[in-house]
Task: inverse folding
């Protein structure tokens, strides 16, 4: 049951910042060992959206990354491939071609990523272009300026229209929490995005600091939890930006397990947006296989 | 719980190698470990898996009587000891407890089922601090209660519950010793181990014999303590306590 924006503004709960910080701090003291660590690391790998979003991206760079997406480290057996690659719309067709025989999905950012400062029809065009190039998933940014001005209806309608433009592609809505400044805003933006039709909510573009802090991710997980309790519909979560170590990734997974439950522990419902996380996880896995920490030179450069 | 977990977490590291527990604990009366006159021992268990930890003596009226007599005998010399000398003993107990803090915390958790975080970070440090605190007060009581004559009362019978086993023992024993009283203490039957470890510590600290007596058992032991004629608590308190014990005697397991 979708709510109107005015209902959402009334219903969206205020966030207990200290409570969130305390809960996150407890999770961050946890240390995973043994088989559950290995399993967690492999799970983290399978949830990564391998990302390259730079002005200097070339088809060659994208092809190299796509190769890595399904050949993470061939000397370790039974490694999963990553969940998806995430590129600019103009790179979608190269990625799609490279990944045509694999399960790896192609995600494309759109709507004038990363700032989102473009007219709505340009954003729709941007989205339709990416979908027509073959993108399986669309990562859109919300208009943070409008949100902070209080034009929540505009933000809601924009997401709804982009969702329509996506067609069959799954829609991830980037809130860019670093620019929303408070957890209350993060919660309201999450609720707006979810009710406007997002399949996934995502923390950040990766271009703004702070990006995916665990406090922000926790707040968004709570929004997903509340929506699930109300409607029984699952929404995905994607923390992106700033998650570059295995430990942080495992803490995020633990948080998902304990807040939402194990149903969310698949790459259908949880993703990491990261470029350097994969290498760190690989080095941890190499260590657990061989007993030695390898030099970063033994995993691919990207 | 029978649902199979997709991502089971490995059990956390647990080690009980650094604790020393005896198979059987007797009663600590008059500075000695004596067998219960009934000859009965009961088992104390780990509530997490109900495994047996140790056998503990069940004191009856005769044991209580012996303990109170020992405390009575120790009272004159202990109460006449200069307060600063009494404080030295209490400081010594506090320091030995600190040295064994880790062992005490693990035993507290094993025996009582408290999360280790709580026993390690709250119960045991606080218990040590209470001994330090009351040791500091021992020779300053005249300042605490100006214009009052401070004198010890005699033998204190102390019965403590299971929710903060060692900490409660500290709350009871430390002030009683600091003010010059002698003690007969009975911990809860479900959480006796740390009190018995405390008896070992008190023994190690060289406290004069009979000043602290620690006996174990069920409610009947407690009832025997409350009903003992040498009990030196105020009459009205004693009466209400006695009534409570009688009431709880109805239909309970002892």
Result:
């Amino acid at each position: 049951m979708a709510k109107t924006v005015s209902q959402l503004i009334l219903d969206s709960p205020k966030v207990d910042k200290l409570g969130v910080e305390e809960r996150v701090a407890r999770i961050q003291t946890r240390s995973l060992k043994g088989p559950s660590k290995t399993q967690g690391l492999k799970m983290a790998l399978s949830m990564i959206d391998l990302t390259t979003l730079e002005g200097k991206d070339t088809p060659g760079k994208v092809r190299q990354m796509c190769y890595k997406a399904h050949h993470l480290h061939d000397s370790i057996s039974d490694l999963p491939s990553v969940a998806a690659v995430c590129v600019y719309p103009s790179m979608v067709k190269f990625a799609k071609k490279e990944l045509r025989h694999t399960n790896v999905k192609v995600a494309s950012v759109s709507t004038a990523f990363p700032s989102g400062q473009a007219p709505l029809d340009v954003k729709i065009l941007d989205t339709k272009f990416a979908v027509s190039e073959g993108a399986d998933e669309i990562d859109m940014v919300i208009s943070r300026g409008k949100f902070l001005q209080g034009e929540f209806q505009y933000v809601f309608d924009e997401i709804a229209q982009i969702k329509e433009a996506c067609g069959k592609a799954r829609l991830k809505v980037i809130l860019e929490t670093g620019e929303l400044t408070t957890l209350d805003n993060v919660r309201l933006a999450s609720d707006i995005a979810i009710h406007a039709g997002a399949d996934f909510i995502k923390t950040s573009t990766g271009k703004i600091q702070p990006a995916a802090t665990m406090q922000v991710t926790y707040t968004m997980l709570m929004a997903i939890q509340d929506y699930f309790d109300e409607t029984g519909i699952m929404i995905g979560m994607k923390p992106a930006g700033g998650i570059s170590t295995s430990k942080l990734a495992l803490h995020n997974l633990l948080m998902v397990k304990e807040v939402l439950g194990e149903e969310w522990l698949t790459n259908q419902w949880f993703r990491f947006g990261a470029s350097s996380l994969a290498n760190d996880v690989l080095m941890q896995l190499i260590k657990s296989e061989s007993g030695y920490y390898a030099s970063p030179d033994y995993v691919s450069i990207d | 719980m029978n649902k199979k977990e997709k991502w089971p977490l490995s059990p956390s590291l647990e080690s009980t190698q650094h604790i020393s527990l005896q198979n059987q604990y007797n009663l600590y009366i008059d500075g000695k470990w004596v067998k219960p006159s009934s000859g009965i021992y009961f088992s104390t268990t780990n509530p997490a898996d109900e495994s047996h930890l140790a056998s503990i003596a069940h004191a009856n009226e005769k044991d209580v009587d012996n303990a109170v007599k020992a405390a009575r005998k120790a009272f004159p010399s202990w109460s006449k000891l200069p307060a600063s000398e009494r404080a030295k003993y209490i400081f010594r107990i506090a320091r030995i407890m600190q040295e064994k803090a880790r062992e005490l915390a693990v035993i507290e958790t094993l025996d009582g089922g408290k999360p280790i975080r709580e026993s390690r970070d709250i119960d045991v440090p606080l218990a040590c601090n209470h001994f330090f605190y009351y040791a500091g007060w021992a020779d300053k009581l005249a300042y605490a209660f100006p214009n009052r004559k401070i004198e010890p009362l005699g033998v204190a019978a102390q019965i403590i519950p299971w929710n903060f086993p060692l900490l409660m023992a500290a709350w009871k024993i430390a002030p009683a010793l600091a003010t010059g009283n002698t003690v007969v203490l009975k911990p809860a039957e479900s959480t006796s181990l740390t009190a018995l470890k405390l008896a070992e510590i008190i023994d190690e600290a060289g406290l004069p014999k009979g000043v602290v007596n620690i006996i174990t058992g069920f409610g009947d032991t407690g009832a025997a303590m409350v009903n003992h004629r040498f009990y030196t608590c105020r009459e009205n308190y004693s009466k209400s306590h006695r009534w409570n014990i009688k009431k709880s005697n109805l239909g309970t397991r002892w």
Summary: Confidence is low (pLDDT under 50) at residues 233-238, 247-254 of chain B. The longest helix of chain B spans residues 116-137. Chain B is about 50% helix and 15% strand. Chain B touches chain A at residues 5-10, 12-13 (CB under 8 Å).
